[in-house]
Write a structure and sequence with these properties.
By secondary structure, the chain is mainly alpha-helical. The protein has a three-stranded mixed sheet. A hairpin with a 2-residue loop joins strand 1 and strand 2. The longest helix has 18 residues. The radius of gyration is 36 Å and the shape is elongated. It starts with about 25 loop residues before the first helix and ends with a helix. InterPro entries: BACK_BPM_SPOP, BTB/POZ_dom, SKP1/BTB/POZ_sf. It comes from Culex pipiens pipiens. Keywords: Nucleus, Ubl conjugation pathway. This is BTB domain-containing protein.
Length: about 250
């Protein structure tokens, strides 16, 4: 025996992103009243889907917006920035800045603003040993972690990062300098590493000078300047070259 139970028609519109059905489609008591346990129950239904809504649901990938922190903070740095509570004065150019941000990113600025120094009293920091473009790039990194001037001022930024204790910037500059190391820049880089006590950089440059480029390096203006200003580095280079030759025997 086959029980035929005619019910409906029923229509239910599912909302977008909902996936449950209609709990009133078939009443249990009606089913038990009209069918025996040995009967066969056949449920026939027709489902019509809105293709546009289905595709929208499948393709709707909810992702958070990308961070705008760097972009937003960039509006706070530069000669046109607003709400600065301290001025960085370099060669007549004024760069408005914010003590809280400078202090958070540089232990030197932090110590400067924590004590009743002239910079704190006058809310002005005068810098006479760093060029304005370098200070602008330094501030840009302090505020946004972005670097756009390594190709032209990596050495100058390295020095500024060391002076104001911005270790991440100094590390970026070191990596760039060593990536671009050549016979023309080796002597200058060795002097830089020696001056700032950067042992890792110095070791890397000495290894570079111990290779096949040694003859070219000695012909550069940088080598001549190093021989004049830092003769001890010439001695260290020669010892490194001799050590390299001994290890190859």
């Amino acid at each position: 025996m086959v029980a035929i139970l005619c019910m409906g028609p029923y229509k239910y519109d599912f909302s977008l992103n909902q996936n449950w059905g209609w709990d009133g489609l078939l009443n249990k008591d009606d089913l038990l009243k009209n069918a025996k346990p040995t009967d066969e129950l056949i449920i026939k239904c027709k489902i019509t889907a809105n293709e546009r809504l289905v595709n929208e649901t499948l393709n709707n990938q909810f992702e958070p917006l990308p961070s705008s922190l760097s972009k937003d903070l960039k509006t706070l740095v530069g000669v046109d920035s607003k709400f600065g509570d301290v001025t960085i004065l370099v060669a007549g150019q004024r760069f408005p800045a914010h003590k809280c941000i400078l202090s958070a990113r540089s232990s030197v600025f932090s110590a400067m603003f924590e004590h009743p120094m002239q910079e704190t009293i006058e809310n002005c920091v005068s810098i006479d040993d760093v060029e304005p473009p370098v200070i602008e790039a330094l501030l840009g990194f302090i505020y946004t972690d972005e670097l756009t001037s390594l190709e032209t001022m990596a050495h100058a930024l390295y020095k500024a990062a060391d002076k104001y204790d911005v270790p991440t910037l100094k590390s970026h500059c070191r990596c760039h300098i060593l990536e671009k190391l050549s016979s023309e820049t080796a002597a200058e880089t060795l002097m830089l590493a020696d001056l700032y006590g950067d042992l890792e950089m110095k070791k890397h440059v000495l290894q570079f000078l111990s290779g096949s480029v040694a003859a070219k390096v000695t012909e550069t203006d940088g080598w001549k300047e190093m021989a004049r200003a830092c003769p001890h580095l010439v001695d260290e280079t020669i010892r490194a070259m001799a050590s390299q030759l001994m290890s190859q025997k």
